[in-house]
Amino acid sequence: MSIHGEIKRVTTHTLQSMKQQGEKISMLTAYDFSMARILDDSGIDVLLVGDSASNVMAGHETTLPITLDQMIYHAQSVIRACQRCLVIVDLPFGSYQGNSKEALISAIRIMKEAGAHGIKLEGGEEVAESIKRITGAGVPVMGHLGLTPQSIYKFGTYAVRAKEEEEAEILLHNANKLQEAGCFSLVLEKIPASLGARVAKELTIPVIGIGAGMHVDGQVLVMHDMLGITKDFSPRFLRRYLNLYDEIGDATKRFIKDVKDRDFPNEGEQY
Ligand code: KIV
Question: Which domains does the chain have, with CATH numbers?
């Protein structure tokens, strides 16, 4: 709490101090008001309105179809729920790759229309100019390297990235370029733990991993995976804290039965 009694917000500076003090950063994805409120209330440091909304909310096979307008809709719902955590929003595929001006316009729309606290985008040196332009306008940028789902058709597989030394060196080079360009933080997805450790040690900005091992500065999971709402996705890096797919299914079956048996509503549940 601050001296005024209101809840103290997590900022990009908070994350930087956490790295310096060795406190791990917790981050989850969120896409709607009700879930974001629970996660924020539970003390999560960062919520990411991820373009994984394309998969878990809209049912697409990849993250590519989701639009900037749809991301803004999800971000507005999440922002309304959050009092404490830092809320970062993904720039979706096609909203920033054209040129740095397009990237800036997209980032500004997210900041203005959703009230986000920063944006995330995927890629290495090739997006450095856009990062400079966006941060130059005062918008915090989180980078994303390793498995970058927006490039899935270029790589053709969701396998672990940068296992070979040559690819690992390229990733390290790109991580440094993103830091130099002004990123306040970096997500590393599905890379060897030893490489995650190297990047986190070499960079001064916080490095948050998803399948990047235990030596990075924080961990992120997709909320639907962590809660077991998704069923068929079981990469090694995923720890499921609940099995909501089955629990929600059981509750639904009980509700159906109660309705069919004329058990619901009972005397006390009607006017
Ligand atoms: O969109 C997303 O959920 C992400 C996380 C995997 C980091 O980018």
Answer: 3-240 (3.20.20.60), 245-271 (no CATH)
- Say which residue the tokens 């096609």 belong to: 94
For the question of residue 189 being annotated catalytic, the response is: yes
Across-strand partners of 144? 187
Instruction: Evaluate: CB of 220 within 6 angstroms of ligand 1.
Output: yes
Q: pLDDT tens for residues 184-206?
A: 999 999 999 999 999 999 999 99
Phi/psi at 98 (nearest 5 deg)?
-60, -55
Q: What is the pLDDT of residues 74-122, one digit of tens each?
A: 999 999 999 999 999 999 999 999 999 999 999 999 999 999 999 999 9
Retrieve residue 263's tokens.
């058990």
Evaluate the omega torsion of the peptide bond into residue 149 and state whether it is cis, within 30 degrees of 0.
no
Tell me, using a 6 A CB cutoff, whether residue 29 lines ligand 1: yes
From atom 2 of ligand 1, which residue's Cα is the shortest distance away? 50
Q: Is the pLDDT of residue 150 over 70?
A: yes
- Pocket probe for ligand 1: among 55, 63, 122, 225, the residue whose CB has the most ligand atoms within 8 Å is 63
Answer yes or no: are the C-beta atoms of 62 and 149 closer than 8 Å.
yes
Ligand 1 atom nearest the C-alpha of 63 is 1
**Rounded mean pLDDT of 154-159?**
94
